[in-house]
Amino acid sequence: MTAVVGVAHAYKRAAFMKAVKAQWESRFGTEISDPAVKLFLDEVYEDALAEDLADISAADLAAQIAEFWAWSRDRKPDAIKVRVRPSQIGETADLRRDILEVAGPDRPFLVDSIMGEIGAQGLDVLAMFHPIVPTSEKSAESLIQVHVEQRDAVARKHLEEGVAATLADVEYSTDDWADMRAAMDMAISHLEAADTPASLEEKAEAIEFLRWIRNDHFAFLGCRNYRFDVDEKGHIQNREPDVQKGSGRGILRDPKRQVLRKLSEPSHLTPAIESFLSDSSPLIVAKANIKSRVHRRVYMDYIGVKKYRDDGVVVGEDRFVGLFTADAYDRMARDVPLIRRKVRRVLDRAGKIPGTHSEKKLRHIVENYPRDELFQTDEDDLLAIGLGILHLYDRPRTKIFIRRDRFDRFISVLLFVPRDRYNSKVREQAGEVIRDAFDGRLSAYYPQFGDGPLARVHFIIGLNPYEHPEPDVGELERRIAVLARTWEDDFESLARQTISDGNRPHIRAYEGAFSAGYREAYSPAEAVCDLEKIESLTKDNPLAVRVYHSESDGAGELHLKIYQTGEAVPLSNVMPVLENMGLTVLQESGFEVRRDSNSEDKAQPVVFVHDFEMQRSGASAQADNADVVFEEALLAVLDNRAEDDGFNRLIPQLGVSWRDAAFLRTCARYRQQTGLDPSQAIQEEALAANPDIARCLLELARTKFDPSLALTRDARKEAAEALTADIRARLEAVASIDHDRVLRRILRLIEAILRTNYYQTDAQGRPKAHISLKIASRELEELPLPKPYREIFVWAPNVEGVHIRFGPVARGGLRWSDRRDDFRTEVLGLVKAQQVKNAVIVPVGSKGGFYPKQLPKSGTRDEWLAEGVSAYKTFIRGLLDITDNIEGDTVIHPDNVVSWDEDDPYLVVAADKGTATFSDIANGVATDEYDFWLGDAFASGGSAGYDHKAMGITARGAWESVKRHFRETGKDIQSEPFSVIGVGDMSGDVFGNGMLLSRKIRLLAAFDHRDIFIDPDPVDLEACFAERQRLFETPRSSWQDYDQALISKGGGVFSRAAKTIPLSAEMQALTGIETDRAAPVDLISALLKAPSELLWFGGIGTYVKASDEQHWEVGDKANDALRVDARDVGAQVVGEGANLGFTQAARIEFARKGGRINADFVDNSAGVDTSDHEVNIKILLNPFMRAGDLTRKKRDALLGRMTDKVAEHVLSHNYDQTLAITLAETTAPLDIDAHERFMTGLEAQGRLDRVVEGLPGSEEIRVLKDQGLGLTRPELALLISYAKITLFDALVASSVPDDPHFVDTLHGYFPDDLSGYGDAMATHRLRREIVSTILANDMINLGGPTFVHRAKESTGANVAAVARAFEAGRQIFRFSDLTDRINALDNKAPASVQIDLHEEIIRLLRRQTYWLARRGRGRETDQPAHINDVVTAYREGIDELKAQAHTFISDYERGRVARQAKAFVQAGAPKDLASEIANLRPLTSSSDVVDLALRKDWPLISAARIYHAAGARFQFDRLRGVAGEVSSTQHWDRLAVRRLIEDLYASQQTVAESVMRHAKDVGGSLAKGVEQPDEKWARDLIDSWSIINAEEAGRVDATLTEMDNSGAWSLSKLAIASTQLREMAQNAEP
């Protein structure tokens, strides 16, 4: 058996019979023994199906059956009982259904008649049981129980009456069956004998037909005989026929039953009936006007047989009603009498050649014609209709054929529709059109589908006979044809008429593309609109949108369609977008459109169409192009060219474009990043609540920056000022303080914007998705300090970023920030450090930060990185969009950018925390997309640059600081073990390289964001070093990779993800934690406090704050839990290889408690210094590459060869800078007043904010003075940087960098390998900046932070004169050689003696600078002397004096030199160096001596002997020595001392010059001694001069003697002595 049967019994037989048995015994008190009962129950069981009785138990059904049996027993033998009852009656259960029960004699048609009645009343049958119980050999009882839906009492009564009436018809028709057949026999006999007008053939066919139906092809349901009152001529006399009494049989027993009309019979004969009676045909076959209740619920068939008189006149009619049997319908037409003749005659009359296609097709049409119609349709109509149908097959189309009932009771309509256009809707609409046209009723319809191209529907439309309209059949057919046109037909027709020419060839691709649901929802016209949008989609542009409106839309309602290829648009992506645009989605529907597309330029053939019905919320501006603006905005958001937030609500509210909204968003986002403005929600609210002002703000931006406006710069400015004034006037009416603040600050921001890329377009001609604003930050009032020179803010949907710089030529890295809401605060903090860090390089400080906003939340690392790179590129593009370029020597402004500032082509960046890869990415954007003049110098550190990690340059630079710290405490960390605790891991650049810079490192502990490494007592330092090196060389290593066998007892590597970490005794001893376990953050805090010699920072984070700082002030939330106070840090030395390990306040606190620390911007400046060298070298070589004279490969090779030399240059800067801090620290207590004056001066210039930089205020300075303290190293580092920055600015603005002397300086900046590019160096775009940077660093490193400030105060010279004097002085005295020799003593002599030696050099350098500056004062604006000329004039003489100084200096000076040289030697200095430097102080006046010799044309040594002899005679040397010992922290006291010393030098020179004149005047041996000077000659000449000037000399001698005898020297004594000496010099003779 292979059939699958889905019918099963509801119960097992045994279970059912058990339930029945129990019910029978309970109800009837007896067992089941009656065979009739058993048969009854067996048949009930067979009808008990599981699907009908799912919730009914066997017991419940048994109770219903018992109740049914008991009720059926109370019936008379021939009676029929009917009842409809609730299921719960007596003891039966409530089954939630009603029960129809029938009991009576079994007869035909019972079940189907009852079921017909139930169906006619609209009820569903839930279950049915029909046992038949024999009552005798020839009879049986039919018991029927039907379960139906629960009804109320009225409905139950109606059903019961209907079933009773139906059963009555069944009874009449079955009881009179034989009589009706007999009546038919009589009619046949009469017809056979009658003389009829019909032809013999027609008569014979009629008789054969009647016999045929009598032989079981017709179910007789009723018959009746009529007589007509006809006169002798055959005319009807009485139009009311006579029903023969007693002739009614079956259902026509009832005289009220009608056959042909609704009116009660008898009635007048209608014309139609009279026509039938006069027709020659002996019989009629038609439809009765009543439906059968018996067997089938259809209109009964009516057969009328005429009765004739002997003369052939019709005198009556035998009428039969019933139903043709199924066999009658199944027989071929050729086998059915009456119609076979009709068919044959129609085919003959059609004249088709037998066997041809047309003949066969026509035969098929006629033989398959509706059988009822074949009976009722006359021959002529059948021929016409048949031929009409035949033509349809030749050209399938919609067509109707109408046949009228001859009694005008109905019309029969055959509707033919092409099969592919037929559907139920067409059938329903066509039926309604026909019904309406005839004002009739749709009685029945019969669809029929064959194998051909046409579908057929047979409609029966009931009429009010002779009282209905007569429609134009042609017009009716046209109306139906329109209905039968398919949606696709209308679509194709409309598309070809209206679609664009370019899309017309694609129409065929849409055959079958639209689903039934789509066609149901939309008109063809709407589909054509969709087609146009769909055809705009491509692989590169897979998304489109369209707004449309319907006539039924209410106020604020609109519709939106979104089109996307390949996949549906997630609603979760769309709904928030629409809500943010002020729309509420009322309904959404989606459809797939499946195109037949093979075009390569098209996207996938499946297009998803989403339709949204929406309601606008809130007011909206009315604009003609509102829909287009909305579409563009939505598409921009979905295409990720615009952001999805509340600013998009401004688009409909203000009636502006998405770009306008994006511009306001960009302004608002920048303002938010300042940390001073209200939330974004308030900003959105302010703009939306003040639409006029918002539009004015946009108009102001347009006026300033729209390049298409034909306005001059002045006209733009005037128009912008007018708009600004108007906006400010409007702001006066803004009631909300928050709104006013938002709007005013955006206004001021737009005023301060210098450039924007807003009007630039991409390669497709669309507005760029990102917006850049170049801002003159210092023009903004509400901005955190310090305010930058310029900044560029970039907004894009996927990234936001800012680039801050403090000067036109600035440099700094770009950081990938993780701080969405305050990355500018982070960058500002970094750029503050960068600004002071950049004091050692050419550019000033800059820094950038970008925050990728669309990083995948759950993606692979590669996916995460790819999105970050994409954001980074967008940020880079935003910077370059509004940056000038250079072609040749010409500065080129960006396209479509209106610039409100000067030329600004210098933009240099780097990857702040990235690798060479990120610099390469930036350079790729700069060179490939912008052809930026800097080439790959744009982002230093790329693969074609200096790899900082490979060089280890940042760590090496910081290590210079660390070595100095330890060296100055007496330890050489390259040869002596020292303990370290670090932040970072060995895979990192700064930490890893740093921990490989000494083999003597004892790394006690380290931590990064993943792990904590602890080695309490490392022993084998070489093995530990090797393991650290292995980790460093292992890509992506972590502390978990460390060989734990090398870790000392009690140590280990612990994950920071652990809840707690077990602590060994050794770890407890190291950290001071007493508990057995500690949380990772607590353990890290303890490590920061643990005793160690060095705390090395190589990782990101701020871990130490000052004790008076709060964690929130630090700005590093991630490390709040583990951060410690500086006073608790246990290290002796801190090395900040990474940025921001300490706050500035923490550094100062740590230094105050005795810790050794500089600042991050000092320690890790080597990285930026290296990058600056790289950039400047590339700038030098780029012109040669562009000209083709140098290939990229050769350039890169050249860069590689210079790596070590660049590193050497850079590390020398780190060395010099830390030395400068040490030297400044040495004299810091004495210089405290000078430092304050310097800071005050910077503040007055607006260049310093002490609060921002963490420098002490005036009150704190006073406290330090009282305590005898000076500034700490971190504070001095800041002052040194500011001194360099301000000096650099002044130098660049002067002519100093253009002095020919600095050609060698410029060449010296570049490695020797570039010596062949000397001419190019002279035209280097940053040559002046390079020279200024070098000179500024040298001046401040050697002279200290207040050097220039003091020199200006002391000499009255300007910065340029001071700078020239400094450079000339150090060249004249060859100080660089001495400095190098001192520095070479590192770890050979104590650091303290090195400092003393440096101090001696600096003292002479300062005096020479002051002297030369004073000498050249006023000449800077005229024609300053070239430095080389000054050097040439003095250096040879100075060299000679240095060589013989010991022969002519005074005894006082000679003694002092001897003592000092001895002290230097005793302190550890080499004897020769000690002596050479000790001799420098007497040479302070050497330039004066040289001048004397030149002016008087004396031999140099002779002039020197006279000069120093005068100094000895009048104690000038001693007085200057005493003045140097008078110490004071007061500025004016110290200035007075400096001036006093200068006066002493001047007086001594004047006296010496007078003595030289005297030698000439006196003649003799004194004059001749000039040629062979010795000490005696010089003394004698001085004595001779003293005699001539005895009065003045005596007064001086007396004064000095008195002062010596009156106690210790003071400043006032010195001042009086100086005055006496000056007066003597002025009054001396000759």
Distance between the termini: 151 Å
Largest sheet: 7 strands, mixed
* Category from helices, strands and their pairing: alpha+beta
**Structural shape:** elongated
As an assembly, this protein is: single chain
Report the total helices. Answer: 63
Q: Beta-sheet strand percentage?
A: 5-15%
Helix proportion range? 40-55%
Kindly state the mean pLDDT as a whole number? 90
Give me the Rg, rounded: 58 Å
Unreliable parts? 1-5, 262-267
Quantity of strands, as a count: 40
Keywords summarizing the entry:
single chain, 1630 residues, alpha+beta, 7-stranded mixed sheet, 6-stranded antiparallel sheet, 63 helices, 40 strands, elongated, disordered N terminus
Can you tell me about this structure?
The strands form 10 sheets. Strands 20, 21, 22, 23, 24, 25 and 26 form a 7-stranded mixed sheet that branches. The protein has 63 helices and 40 strands. Residues 1-5 and 262-267 have low confidence and may be disordered. The chain is α+β, with helices and mostly antiparallel strands and 1630 residues long.
